[in-house]
Amino acid sequence: MPLVTSTQMFKDALEGHYAIGAFNANNMEIIQGIVAAAEHERCPVILQVSEKSRIYTNPVYVLKMVEAAVETSNIDICLHLDDGPDYDTCVACIDSGFTSVMIDGSRLPYADNVKLTKQVVTYAHDHGVVVEGGLGDIHGDTDSDIPSALTNPEQAADFVHDTGVDSLAVAIGTCYGPYKFKTEPTLAFDRLKDLTSYLDNLPLVLHGASSVPKEFVDLNNQYGAAIERAQGVPEDLLRDAARMGICKINIETDLNLVMTACIRQFFVEHPEAYDPHEYLGPGRRAIRSMVIHKMRQVLGCSKRL
Ligand code: 13P
After folding, report:
1. How far is it, in rounded angstroms, from Cα 110 to Cα 75?
2. 6-44: b or e for each residue (b if 16 or more CB lie within 10 Å)?
3. Alpha helix (H) residue ranges in 72-182
4. Is residue 208 within 6 Å of ligand 1 at its C-beta?
5. Which of 252, 257, 298, 299 to mutate to test ligand 1, by most ligand atoms within 8 A of the CB atom?
6. Which of 123, 81, 72 is nearest to 99 (CA)?
7. What residue ranges do the domains of the chain occupy?
8. Which atom of ligand 1 is nearest to 175's Cα?
9. Would the CB of 69 count as within 6 Å of ligand 1?
10. Residue 218 — pLDDT band, cuts 50, 70, 90?
11. How does pLDDT run across 252-268, given as a tens digit for each residue?
12. Is 31 helix (H, G, I), strand (E, B) or coil?
């Protein structure tokens, strides 16, 4: 089964009021854990790669690992550029076989974001590739209590009309990394409701959507880490967001936390060990379990194939 775009995945997700998981594919064991979970749950999945990770791993290795995942599984897999920083990176990914790219102009002035996004959409659509745009403070650079950081629904409608994007990452109060909230976690559901009514069935995307499970923060800390006051998006809020029109949920921090916790634990418990298969294997298994849990309890996308 070849790589697919996210078009059908999002259509089904919108109709079914669930979300597709977009998991950052940072190394081979993480990819294998994610894909094993998706196979087990019979659900489509998005493997996404940031430019930093693509360069670190090497673009050819990234593609070949994802091709191996496609060849050895029988689920729908979409390969997506996460947080595409510029036109040339998007073009390089499209030319090499990615089926979806994000062009992240969200930090640019509005007019520049429109211009850049439109340019990427034109190239991508000519090559059968879909595009995610971004509008508002989707990274959580500013305090989420500041209303202007959230995506403006009217501006979003203009943005979608003027650029032709296939999906849009919106800001409703999340941020990247393990430190998402200083006080009680909350998402701007009123704003999400307005966005869905202005954007009329356009697939919406949530970045910064890790839940930062206490279990894995504690496991890291128990084995030597110092991750203090970490707080993610509670699972029930993500489930509600998925029911309300968010159909792609981005998750990276949780995968990194679980893999690192397992490695830390292994080395403390086996100080004599040095074989990478021994210390990366537990992380791969734990990633599989975590992704199965998210597919069932958070995204609601299990048993969709
Ligand atoms: P987290 O840091 O919450 O996992 O979000 C990552 C992300 O949105 C990548 O696009």
Report:
1. 38
2. beebbebbbeeebbbbbbbbbbebbbbbbbbbbbebebb
3. 87-96, 110-126, 153-163
4. yes
5. 252
6. 81
7. 7-295
8. 3
9. no
10. very high
11. 999 999 999 999 999 99
12. helix
Predicted TM-score of the model (pTM): 0.97
Phi, psi of 28 (to 5 degrees): -60, -45
> Is the CB of residue 281 below 6 angstroms from any atom belonging to ligand 1?
no
Residues forming beta bridges with residue 169, ordered by sequence position: 134, 205
Ligand 1 and 176: CB distance under 6 A: yes
Give the pLDDT confidence score for residue 145 in this predicted structure: 64
Say which amino acid occupies 79: L
Gap from CA of 153 to ligand 1 centroid (Å):
22
| Average pLDDT of the chain, as a whole number | 96
Distance 139 CA to ligand 1 centre (A): 8
Q: What would the pLDDT profile of 73-118 be if each residue is shown by its tens digit?
A: 999 999 999 999 999 999 999 999 999 999 999 999 999 999 999 9
Instruction: Say if ligand 1 is within 6 A of residue 151 CB.
Output: no
Neighbouring residues of 96: CB distance < 8 A, sequence distance ≥ 6: 59, 63
Q: Write down how long the chain is.
A: 305
**pLDDT value, residue 148:** 75
What is d(CA 98, CA 79) in angstroms, rounded to the nearest whole number? 5
Q: How far is CA 167 from CA 182, 200, 247, 299, in A?
A: 30, 12, 9, 17
Q: Which CATH number fits domain 7-295: 3.20.20.70, 3.40.50.300, 3.10.20.30, 3.40.190.10?
A: 3.20.20.70
Q: Has residue 147 got a pLDDT over 90? A: no
For residue 206, give Cα distances in angstroms to 20, 246, 290: 11, 7, 19
